[in-house]
Amino acid sequence: MQFAITHPMHSHPYNPELVTGAGIARVAAAAEKAGFGGFGFTDHPAPTQRWLDSGGHDALDPFVAMGFAAAHTTTLRLIPNVVVLPYRNPFVVAKAGATLDLISDGRFTLAVGVGYLKREFTALGVDFDERAGLFEEALHVIREVWTTDDLSYEGKHFTATGITAHPRPVSAPHPPIWVGGNTSAARARVAKYAQGWCPFRAPALLAQTARTAALESTEHLKAGIDDLRRRLDEAGRDPRGVDITFTNDAGGAPGSGNFNADEFLSGLVELEKAGVTWIQVNAPGDSLAHALEAIDEFGETVIGRL
Predict the structure, then answer these.
(1) Half-sphere exposure of 115 (CA within 13 A, CB side)
(2) Cβ-proximal residues to 74 (8 Å cutoff; 6+ apart), any chain
(3) Per-residue b/e over 163-175, b at no fewer than 16 CB within 10 Å?
(4) Which candidate, 106, 104, 42, places its Cα nearest to that of 67?
(5) pLDDT tens digit string along 235-266?
(6) Of 44, 61, 14, nearest in space to 123 by CA
(7) 10 with 282: CB under 8 angstroms?
(8) Which residues form the Luciferase-like domain (predicted)?
(9) CB 179 within 8 A of CB 198
(10) Cα–Cα distance, 18 to 164 (Å, whole number)
(11) Is residue 20 classed exposed, middle or buried when 0-12, 13-18 and 19+ CB atoms within 10 A define those classes?
């Protein structure tokens, strides 16, 4: 079992300590020292004020910020949570990902999602109704451009002739790709293209807002994992080679007054039995000091006991 943490910008407005170079470096270094395996950023280049006022959060550019974090760490994997793939041309994503993998000595994982904020799509000039098709084609293109010279591609949304994009990533055959989302379509894309699945807890109302399937319990998660394993078997792939990330609600949130490490550890046992290989952990974002304290505490009381 490994642990990943997203840079704790959970609100609007954000705490300004978190967006300085020093703040990013300190959070990343603290996560690495505590034993976390992954660190990343969210992706919201053009959120609406309405969404921010309704519980949304501000964000940094994930590729730029992960590059800075890479310079201040040596073992921490760089895992965005998540890149909204239809927002960007896949050749640009492939170049950014290859660069990040190179400068981090092979520590990049491309975690991606379809996206759900319609007005953000509009602001970026991307057809919201075409997002699934854009996502599917982009997954194919990125893998190909990372592994193929003189690449030609003819699709509905992207066309290219004779593309050779060097330098290639360090990771072989390419950086891992993780696909986010709770739907059967997300699991089908994992089986076809990816090395990881990133579902998330989503009660019915949240699922409707995020335009995904509800996932409210460990039993729901187990059903999804069983479905994914069936799809991987049908594709001739070993399910043991595919990571699954999830959150652990047992024991409360690190940094909160009622966090219980023993209960958190007990919850990990159930999730590991279900097939989860990575746990996404949230740190408080009200101040840099509180975030660092929570990361250190989690390293000592949870990671250090495994």
Answers:
(1) 30
(2) 32
(3) bebeebbbbeebb
(4) 104
(5) 999 999 999 999 999 999 999 989 999 999 99
(6) 44
(7) yes
(8) 1-245
(9) yes
(10) 38
(11) exposed
- Taking the C-alpha atoms of residue 299 and residue 301, their distance in angstroms, rounded to an integer, is 6
Question: Which stretches of 63-166 are assigned E, i.e. beta strand?
Answer: 77-78, 83-84, 110-113, 151-154, 159-163
Give residue 175's Cα distance to chain centre: 13
Structure token pair of residue 276: 């989860």
209's tokens = 């807002």
pLDDT value at 209 more than 90: no
The candidate with the shortest Cα–Cα distance to 172, out of 147, 137, 138, 200, is 147
Q: Which residue has the tokens 């006991």?
A: 305
Q: What is the pLDDT of residues 117-127, one digit of tens each?
A: 999 999 999 99
The angle that helices 62-70 and 21-34 make with each other, rounded to 10 degrees, is 60
Cα angle value 108/218/203 (rounded, 5°): 85
Q: Nearest to residue 105, comparing CAs of 70, 81, 79?
A: 70
Structure tokens, 278: 């990575």
The residue written with tokens 């909160």 in the block is: 256
Is residue 200 exposed (0-12), middle (13-18) or buried (19+ Cβ within 10 Å)?
buried
